[in-house]
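Obj.: predict assembly geometry.
Materials: sequence records (below).
Method: joint structure prediction, all chains together.
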Amino acid sequence: MSKKPTTKKTAARKPTARTKKPKVDSWKRADGRAFDELRTLKIESGVLPNADGSAYIEMGRNKILAGVFGPREMHPKHNAKPNEAVLRCRYHMAPFSVDPRRSPAPSRRDQEISMVMRSALEPAVFLERYPRASIDVYIEVLEADGGTRCASINAAAVALVDAGIPMKDLVAACAVGKIEDKLIVDLGDYEDKKGQSDMPVAYMPKLGKVTLLQMDGDLSTEEAGKALELAIEGCKKVYEVQREALKKKYGIDQPQDKPQELPPAEPESEEEPQREES
Amino acid sequence: MSANFQDRDLVLPGDVLFEGRIRTGENTYRNQEQVYATHLGLVNYRPDNVSVTALSTGYMPLVGDQVIGVVVDMDLGEWRIDIGGQELAVMGIPDAVDRPFRTDYNMTRILDIGDTLVAKIVDLDRRRTPVLSILGPGLGKVYEGFMVRITPSKIPRLIGKKGSMINMVIKETGCRVAIGQNGRILVSGPNREREELVVKVIDKIEREAHTSGLTNRTQEFLRQLKERKQ
Amino acid sequence: MSKSNIVSHLKQKKITEVLSTGKRMDGRAFEDFRELTIKRNILFKSEGSAEVWLGKTHVMVGVKVGTGTPFEDTPDEGVLMTNAEFTPIANAAWEPGPPNENSIELARVVDRGLRSAEILDTHELCITVGKLVQIVFVDLYVLNYDGNLIDACGAGAIAALMGAKRPTFSEGKPTGEKVPLTVRKKPIPVSVIKIGDNFILDPTADEEDVMDARLTVTFDEENHVCTMQKSGSEGLTVDEIKKCINMAQGKAPQNRVKAIGD
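Observations (raw structure tokens):
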């Protein structure tokens, strides 16, 4: 029974793929991925016993830990806001996370990413519920492989939920770039360095709002719009992994989890023809 | 007007729980016609409201809560106590000693830095700082035992319906157990084996707080542990 | 600073009480270690790496090999540098910032253990005499703190160095090939702490909070002492020090096996 529909599906799809855009299908990236394929993505929540909330993410070969502390008393006190909590983000890379070794002292890049992360996460957090407090989000990059700011945001969002911080929505992040004049999703290290452009996007999937948008390089306005759509598709895939990570920690509905893992495969394949048309 | 999940389903922040007019209960918020979850937890649909039982939260102090804290700072006529909340709680001398106030009290002889106490939140001041008192039955400085911590939102499960869970644990282990709403539990027993039993049970309740029939399973679990020891 | 560095009297009393019955809070005997697990070479951007779990203490050790100028008094020798980082995710009381005296002590004790055992053949790290040598960085990155960092980091450092590869040079130019780093000795630190009249190995964070003194002894594989470090606010008698050395010596070989296999 189950075989018949699948054969029908592939038979129906093949001609459209051939006639419309054979190039897109045959073209593979340096690491063999399709243009809209994410790297392997693994998220685990609640990994740090001493943190109020935490998450570990492996996005490609990025290995990143996020720890959340708070809401707690702000030190120094004059940094506190009387009407809401302050979300403090600190992005930090281990000296051995890159080649050559880097100094453990924070760089300008670290500070910029810390700031960008804060503004990506802030819209999702009910800061007004904790006046004068600080909520600290600490990121430690153990291994960097391109796209660490997106991976860090993904881990931080999971860690915030794990910490029980009230949130409007999760935040999922994914980058889109251009290499050899083609748009690609979730840039690896090589694509990050050799590509023509890089556009990290963070997105609140249930509220449908973009909370981080940066772009470097060269894109036409048309491409920019399409890139944004691709990025959001990527964010939605990331979001599913975030959900699973959080559900798994609480060990709920374990038997139900398995059938839930399967359906995402189908929507993916159904979405492909839509993209080819556009 | 529709519910998007089954009662007791696991939901995440941002999940739309309900579309239409309904009261928003704990750990939810409204955005136009939709009610969203703010926490990871189990959704509860009631006829007139929708709420989420959070599985992971920090401690939000409320007046009337019994809490367990450690004195970490002292000032003129006032102790500051870490109760694991967003900020330190305060307690003045009149809330610590049931005698007329005297300025020459040697405060460290009443409570010293590093002392542990069971206290009640009697007020939240205008900056929402919890104000504690140790005057009352079961309250005061603690001299025996050790502290265990769990997620504050799981404390109700540890207590059980009308104290059924905790009374069962106390009866089966013979330990004294004091519970703070702030997720801290004091355990003191006749010997180390008994105390370790309590630690194991608390750990089990923490892990399985969201499941049903927990009291019976915990009782069974305790019996097995005790048999293994013998 | 946060106030969480205040030690509860109750904790102090309870730990001492339980120790006086010959047991510990987690049920271990005085000389028991928690489970020590070390995974080697898990990071691909480091020349060598080791992930260490000692109970809930979690440390990542990364070895990077770079180049630099040699010290003036040793123009034909490479350099070994050890650095420790207390990340703020490891403990609620740790704040981000420059190294403090605790992280510097950790780095120094591990460093001295490696150095005094003359673990590396520093001459093989020379590229051009007086001008360019290889520098081996050992970064100890604490990810979760639950006591006994020195022993965890010391075992992790040797594990990471044993699996490390260094780039080779020919007439001052990189050849693009990598060879295993020569590791001549395998020093392992073991710390003993004193609480009241009791001496215990592998303390948890709670036990370290209430400790009176600590003696760390590093042994090489012949069980010779390479380094010692005494810290803590109480003194130790000569007999107590001898007792600590004996206790530590008994555990060093086991930890070495866990660190490097064999």
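Conclusions so far: Residues 28-277 of chain A form a domain with the Ribosomal Protein S5; domain 2 fold (CATH 3.30.230.70).
To do: check interface contacts against the pulldown list.
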